[in-house]
Design a protein that fits this description.
Layout: E1 3-8, E2 14-15, E3 30-34, H1 36-42, E4 80-82, H2 84-89, E5 94-99, H3 109-122, E6 127-131, H4 135-147, E7 150-156, H5 161-169, E8 173-177, H6 181-195, E9 198-199, H7 207-222, E10 230-234, H8 239-253, E11 263-269, H9 274-282, H10 308-318, E12 321-325, H11 327-338, H12 346-360, E13 369-374, H13 396-402
Parallel strand pairs: 5-13, 6-7, 6-9, 7-8, 10-11, 10-13, 11-12
Antiparallel strand pairs: 1-2, 1-3, 4-5
Helix pairs in contact: 3-4, 3-7, 4-5, 7-8, 9-10, 11-12
Bound molecules: pyridoxal-5'-phosphate.
Keywords: Lyase, Pyridoxal phosphate
Cofactor: pyridoxal 5'-phosphate
Enzyme class: lyase
Length: 404
């Protein structure tokens, strides 16, 4: 067994492994602890050459101990695309985009739920629930469906309707909540004993961070075991940032890679920017007042990340930053990425908008290699308007009259 137990990311206390209750007595988040010395003796980089292109190629660094319990729908090993045209236009060294929208449920949430649902299976649980702005709900729904586990999902009612509709298609009991993601979480906490649910919300169980860790492992492997200089990542609850940061610590401990950690940049949307505000408060800059009621919410709308302090410490440790973008900057970015052949969700687009802002401010250096994460694709956020009402789409009659 590769997992030793759990450790606290704040006070470093060590605890035996468990499947639920990821808070330490000190208030810190518990993460999975591995015997990296032992893993390093049996698991070599070269082993990967013959492994299947899925995130489970890193199974030695994942916490599922019974291989029969692995629940996989083909997640991970997503393409890393180099954006050469813009690389030349912008004052940076290299520009890459990680195409997380290609995961089985159309977002990188597949990774976390592949591991989380495998752990549910391993621990014999049969019912799970999640509060979500959409993609976590559809990922739980899909993986639980495949595993034969009952899923219940609670989603704020203003979330993207197409993502909401995916959930019952995968067989999940689907509920809309008049409130934010933390209101949805409170419903699950209140009902979990009566309903027998395991709450698989962000940082409530050990699997989701471990699944997202594979983004960091993959990126290192795809860049031939080098760190990029900068990772720009759309951040909501923060499990992705925490997972990638953990990946890089583990790779260093295995001596598979060295050099400085990538600088982590969290991008958020103006109006719900607790990480940007938290960082400003740490730096004693003036903070803006977070207005959390933004329209058309995305995976970044998480007013109360479960461990903000951990996210801020990762940004500080890595020399990163956090930045909020406006809706119009994000919409423009969707168009710019689209015209390069990339279908990007608002969250993925925010990384592009962040890239431009950090070039403008001079925060990015001419030598930097930068990786953007396109965490989902545009189609999941499409509005059901008729095509004739879209100014960019013309009819056959328009074509005829334009070509007389
Ligand atoms: C959940 C989500 C995010 C935020 O990710 P975290 O790792 O929870 O911070 C970003 N983009 C998309 C598309 C999401 O679904």
């Amino acid at each position: 067994m590769n997992r030793l137990g759990l450790y606290c990311s704040r006070c470093s206390a060590k605890l035996p492994f468990r499947y639920v209750e990821m808070k330490c007595d000190c208030g810190g988040t518990l993460l999975v602890d591995y015997d990296l010395e032992c893993i390093g003796r049996t698991f070599k980089k070269e082993d990967l050459l013959t492994r299947y292109p899925s995130m489970w190629r890193y199974k030695d660094l994942l916490p599922v101990s019974n291989p029969d319990c692995i629940i996989t729908l083909g997640e991970g090993w997503t393409p890393l695309v180099r954006l050469k045209t813009w690389e030349q236009k912008l004052p940076i060294g290299q520009l890459w985009l990680k195409r997380e929208e290609q995961n089985p449920t159309g977002s990188f949430k597949s990774r976390g739920f592949s591991v989380a649902v495998s752990l549910l299976k391993e621990s014999g649980r049969t019912k799970a629930a999640v509060p979500s702005n959409g993609n976590a709900a559809s990922a739980l729904a899909a993986y639980a469906g495949y595993a034969g586990i009952e899923a219940s999902v609670f989603i704020p009612l203003d979330c993207p309707p197409l993502i909401v509709e995916e959930c019952p298609l995968y067989g999940a009991a689907t509920y809309l909540v008049d409130g934010f993601i933390h209101d949805a979480a409170a419903i699950i906490e209140a009902g979990k004993h009566e309903q027998g649910w395991i709450n698989v919300g962000t940082l409530k169980e050990p699997g989701r961070v471990e699944g997202k860790k594979t983004m960091g492992l993959e990126l290192a492997e795809q860049l031939s075991w080098k760190f990029p200089d900068v990772i720009i990542y759309p951040t909501g609850g923060g499990s992705g940032i925490i997972g990638m940061w953990k990946a890089y610590h583990e790779l260093k401990a295995l001596h598979w890679i060295d050099g400085p950690m990538p600088r982590f940049v969290c991008v958020q949307e103006e109006g719900c920017q607790p990480i940007v505000d938290g960082l400003a408060a740490l730096n004693q800059a003036a903070t803006t007042q977070a207005v959390t009621a933004i329209a058309n919410p995305t995976g970044m709308r998480v007013p109360n990340p479960p461990d903000l302090a951990l996210i801020l410490s990762i940004i500080a440790e890595s020399g990163g930053t956090a930045i909020a973008l406006s809706k119009s900057q994000i919409a423009e970015a969707t168009q710019t990425l689209g015209s390069q052949g990339i279908s990007s969700s608002p969250e993925g687009s925010a990384t592009w908008a962040g890239l431009l802002a950090l070039c403008d401010s001079g925060w990015l250096l001419p030598s930097d290699s930068v990786v953007l994460f396109n965490t989902s694709h545009a189609m999941k956020y499409a509005k059901l308007t008729s095509s004739s009402s879209l100014p960019t789409i013309r009819t056959y009659e328009d074509y005829r009259s334009l070509n007389k």
